[in-house]
Design a protein that fits this description.
homodimer; alpha/beta; Rossmann fold; 6-stranded parallel β-sheet; 4-stranded parallel β-sheet; 15% strand; elongated; DNA-binding; LacI family transcriptional regulator (chains A, B); HTH_LacI (chains A, B); DNA-binding transcription factor activity (chains A, B); Peripla_BP_I (chains A, B); transcription cis-regulatory region binding (chains A, B)
Chain lengths: 362, 362
DNA sequence: TGATACTTGGAAAGCGCTTTCCATCTGCTG
DNA sequence: CAGCAGATGGAAAGCGCTTTCCAAGTATCA
């Protein structure tokens, strides 16, 4: 139904080839008068090139696929924003898929693990089918990648596709952006201990996610180096609710109640990411505990929404948008870079660290 | 480079037509044994259908385009999440574009207005070029649509594309999801006044956006009905920073300082959306003003991130994810529905309304 | 057993472009 | 003015599928 190139060519009185050369960038430029005629004809008919047909003919689609876990999570949406920016600049389109709804068939087969797994696989397969020029996996990788996923991506890469992951992966030839999760977690705890905190509890994310594991190891490492041991380690989802529930569980385990808490030094809850930390703060408030006087909280990522939170959340700042830009850049480049490393900085705000001494003194 | 259907057909010893019928849903199903042979061959070769070629042949792409302003904004990411969900269920892919980076050429020509305008136009044109089956415009519409945008979308619709907008539009034949912005704003203020508040200031969003205008009209309407007048109306961007700056300006105008504020009734700042409201709260804190004792704040949308905010923000809850799902559903349906209306509910939390009397009594 | 009606697999014509060749034409050089 | 390089427009062969016809095979019925 839409106008096609043939019609433009006919109206301009030139061949299909010439029209194509004029309208859709080619190495050959027809004479000025002809070019003009074609342009006018195209404008008059309202011609819009069919990208699908071009993709087929050129065997490159101008599409880049982005897989996130949950686009409504500030962590992922910040990264997506960065990806968008670069994609737009290089005139590529972004195909977005989330893995938090399961595989798509509605056949969510019990285990969350395999549901996410299959959702990721489904997303990747769709992208491969659409022949995206590159695929960015922004979701946290697993220690052991799904063999099917791995096989498909390997083949995809062999066929000229590029794959970028956040965090190490066992997928051969994928470009990886290493995030300083371990180091960051270590530095964060170090800074906190330096400020006088000694009692810690850890809210770890899903144990099968590399991101969660690295951060938790970093926490442990720093504590061990200072001869400290976490009072509790509770696992929860990478979500506000996950942080909320894990915190309640933690408080119950440690038998912390509003009254007699500020004994020596307040407990500091180390959450595996900011979203969990925010959930933790909500949980603490629900129990009438003050932050940071009674209990302190630290997160990880420094998601943009933290800007307006009160009290300010101490965290480890990752340049999320930059990570997105980097991923997109890596995804679009031919073969220059094979990877990159990103580190962040410790950011202490009111929720933990900065007021530790005053909390003690109170 | 990837395996193609011809190769599968050859290996299975059948024709191209048969292979196609077996692998990619057709109305005709070849005999069981043949089906099996083809399946095995496809599996063995690792065949993945080329969606571009299918799109060309079937003249339908299975793509739906989503235009948001800023995917990192919780309002848009919540909607996007809803769109995703429905798209996934119906095995469609989502093409995402943001308009907060300008048109893409980097030719951001001064005025924010036209930069956004052109970004939207660029996104829509790209979607049309990719022949998406539908386009969802989640960005707030303008009173007067860009004629070029309108013309292109009109043609797109005539060619069988579906267009869904959030809020009324002058684009002919677009399906629209009407959001109860005016009514919501009115109800929200009504509830606030009922709780004893009488001094209001308005943080309006960009004046050329329908969303902002409707909400502000709603605020005004409710105030007028109760013979009240806003003490100040300040325009700001639909962002945290916009709310922050507008608030500072507002405080300066009204000469509100930390000391003598709780005279009769605290000032209540009505922000055109939650993100601005959060920025407003941050601004108030930066001036040492307490919420809600000294100044109160109300927002609009009830974005998911509010869950963990303290003090809780009073707002008008819009079912954002549901709006996204609705938009996607409308976008995918043939012609059953031509639109839909969405309303929300007033939600009073600590930031305004609930503590008005106690604040007075203090 | 011959005629009629289904099934079923395959050949081939597109879907809307890009790009390789080719043919033609222009302008120079000797 | 013959001869050749370089420029320029067009014909046609794909790109990887879907789907319409067709022809051939299998039942069904009188």
């Amino acid at each position: 139904m839409p106008v096609k190139l043939t019609e433009v060519a006919r109206l301009a009185g030139v061949s299909l080839a010439t029209a194509s050369r004029v309208l859709n960038g080619s190495s050959r430029n027809p004479a000025a008068d002809i070019t003009e005629r074609v342009r006018v004809a195209a404008e008059e008919l309202g011609y819009v090139a069919n990208a699908q047909a071009q993709a087929l003919a050129r065997s490159t689609t101008g599409l880049v696929g982005l897989v996130v876990h949950d686009i409504a999570d500030p962590y992922f949406s910040a990264i997506a924003h960065g990806v968008q920016e670069v994609a737009l600049k290089s005139r590529r389109q972004v195909l977005l898929a989330g893995t938090d709804f399961g595989g798509g068939d509605g056949a969510t087969d019990g285990s969350t693990h395999s549901a996410t797994h299959s959702a990721e696989l489904a997303a990747v397969n769709a992208f491969i089918s659409y022949r995206t020029d590159a695929i960015i996996l922004a979701t946290s990788r697993f220690l052991e990648e799904d063999p099917l996923l791995s096989r498909n991506l390997e083949r995809y890469i062999k066929n000229g596709g590029r794959v970028v992951t956040l965090g190490a992966t066992s997928i051969p030839h994928a470009k990886v952006i290493s995030i300083g999760n371990f180091e960051g977690a270590r530095d964060l705890v170090a800074a906190l201990v330096d400020r006088g905190l000694v009692r810690f509890a850890i809210l770890s994310g899903p144990h099968d996610r590399n991101t969660a594991r690295s951060r938790v190891s970093g926490f442990h490492q720093a504590l061990t180096e200072r001869e400290l041991t976490p009072l509790a380690v509770v696992e929860g989802e990478f979500s506000s609710r996950g942080g909320f529930n894990a915190t309640l569980e933690c408080l119950d385990t440690l038998e912390i109640v509003a009254a007699g808490t500020s004994l020596d030094s307040p407990l500091c809850i180390l959450a595996a990411n900011d979203v969990m930390a925010l959930g933790a703060m909500t949980a603490l408030r629900s129990r009438g505990l003050r932050i940071p006087e009674d209990v302190q909280v630290a997160g990880f990522d420094d998601i943009p929404t933290l800007r307006d939170h009160f009290p300010g959340l101490s965290t480890y700042r990752l340049p999320l948008e930059e990570i997105g830009r980097l991923a997109a850049t890596l995804a679009l480049e031919a073969e220059t870079q094979t990877g990159s490393t990103v580190t962040g900085t410790v950011v202490l705000r009111e929720s933990a660290g900065t007021t530790a001494s005053s909390a003690n003194g109170a």
